[in-house]
Structures are given as structure tokens and as C-alpha cells.
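Help wanted!
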Amino acid sequence: METHEKQRLQQIETATSRDPPSDEIRDEETAELREGWTTLVRLLEDADRVQAMPGLVLPEQTPATVVWHLRLGTLAALAAGLMIAVTASRLWRSPEQASSSRWLSVVPVPEVSRSELPDSGHALPPADSTIDDRWDDDLDDRLDDLSQQIAGFHGNGYLLDAPFHWLSEQIGELHEEIEEL
Amino acid sequence: MNTDAGRRDDSDRKRVTGWFHQHGPAVRGYVLAMVRRADVADDVLQETFRKAWEARSRYREEGAARTYLLRIADRLLVDRARRSRRETTVEATVWEQCESGSEADDPARTAEQSEQRRRLAEALAELTPPQQRVLLLRYYGEMSFAEIAETLGCPLSTALSHARRGLNALRQRITEVK
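Answered by r_m:
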């Protein structure tokens, strides 16, 4: 700011301040400006003395807030409903799942003794009494466990994934809208 | 979340209502002096606080609420003036007719008020609209001239020139009346 403009600024600020110390108004020009200012102030004070202020009316809630709350409420209700449905479904499925989970289990084959085999004419190795030809490993148990895990995965995962994915999308959209607000 | 939003809403409401009580008369005084019509002044006052309410989340408290409100009001006046020039150039008699409605019970008081308004209207009529804006913002907002220049969107030197010419015009008028 140039020196001349600084002086002008100071002069006019002094002339138009609320209560300037009298020693600041040294020059005649500032005093004249002050005279014009005090005239205006007096007129404004007189006119404002009779001002009739109206009341203030603020909106109860802005429409955006109302919409936001409504959408949030709807989403919360939907989420709660879905959670209840999922929980009920899981409770309902549990006993059924327990009984039907053996569909993959292997039914033991009845033992057939060598003597009961028909004579087909083929040469067969001689019966060895030391070899136990029954299935004697843990394959049955492992298959059974695996089938239960797969059934459990289908029962829990697929059923829950879809609504949570949808909820996640909805929450994402809501977040974007809030950001825009 | 609703509780937080409600609490924030209450807090904002208190703040804006507080502004109305503290700065409302200054905002209305400024608008009234500019348009000289009480009904328009009341409309602009409401509109100013409605806008302040709508923008409450963006407001940063820096102890300059009055300046902030006067800037909104000034912007509304500029918009109104663009739409209808009549509102900023009504005669003093129209101002008196519009403003005196609520105090019509006491004829003596009404006459005195009308006289005060007439004198102010005549004095303001000596000033150009930019001179009025600069001096009225200085009076009602106690703004610095830098803030006034920013509000008007003009250089500081221009705002100072408006102030100087306006004050000289007012002084000239007093001298003539004497």
C-alpha cells in the first residue's frame, strides 16, 4: 500500500470511528469529514430508535436433513429386518442341516467272504488269511467332515453374502450423498 | 447419530437465534436505510437469516458474525436491485407510509418518526448507492475499509473515495441547511 493511500485510509478511519480521541483529529480536512459522519450517525440513530423488529422464523429442519434421516431410518429398519431373517433362517436350518449333512458319507459295504464268491473260472490268487480286505482307513470320517463343512459354507456363506453385499452398497451410496451434502 | 444431529441442530439454532438478537437490528437498519421500505427490509432480514441458517455448516466462527450477515444482506440487496430498480429508489414519502404502520396509535410519535425518517431519507438521497453502501456498512457493521472493499468487490482506494465523497456531500448538506 502506498504512503498516500495509507494516510487517506487512516484519515477516513479516524473520521468515521465510533469515538475517536480528539487529539487524532488534527487537520481540518479530517475534522470536516468527521462532521459529515456525525451528521449521518445522528440521523441513523434517530431513525433506528423507532425500528420495529419482526420475529425470526427458522425452518424446523431443512428438507435435506429430513430426507437424510428418513433414508437412514429406512436403511436401519431394512438392516434389522434382514438380520432377524438371517438369524431365524440359520436357527431353522441347523437341525435340518445336521440330519442331511451325511448325504456324502459312505455307506459301509457288507462283508463278503471269499467262500461265497461264485466260481467264475478265473484264476484267483489263493486266499490269504493275513490280509484284511475291509476298508479300514479314516476316509469315511474325512469325507463326512468335508461334506459337513461344504454344507455349512453353503448354508452360512451364500445366505449371508448377498444381503451384506447389498447393505454395503446402500451404505456406500448413502455415504456419497452425505459427502455431497 | 440422530441424537448427535439433533444436538447439533439445537446448537446451530441457538447460535443463529443469538445472531438475530445481537445483529438483527443492525442488519435490518442497513437494509432499511438502503431500500427505505420496511416490508422489503423485513423480507431481506428473514432471507438473510434463512441463508445464514442454510449455510450454518460452512460457517467458521471468527468473531465476525455481523460482517458475515451484512455481506449476505448486501448481496441480497444487489440481487434485488438487479431484479427491480424501484425498490432502491423509492421516495421518502413511500418509506414513511410503509414504516409507520405499527406505531400509528400515537399521532405525535408517528409524526416525529416520520420527520426523522424523512430527514434521513433526504440525507441519503444526496449520496450515490456505492457511497451509501460504504458509509452504512461502516456504521452498521463497524467494518474496516478493507472489509468494505471486499464486500463491494472493489479496490480499497475506490472504497475510500466513495467514503470521502459521501462524507463531503453530507457535510455540504448540513452547511446548506444551517
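OP: Thanks! One thing I noticed: Chain A touches chain B at residues 1, 5, 8-9, 12-13, 15-16, 18, 32-33, 35-37, 39-41, 43-44, 46-54, 56-59, 61-62, 65, 69, 72 (CB under 8 Å).
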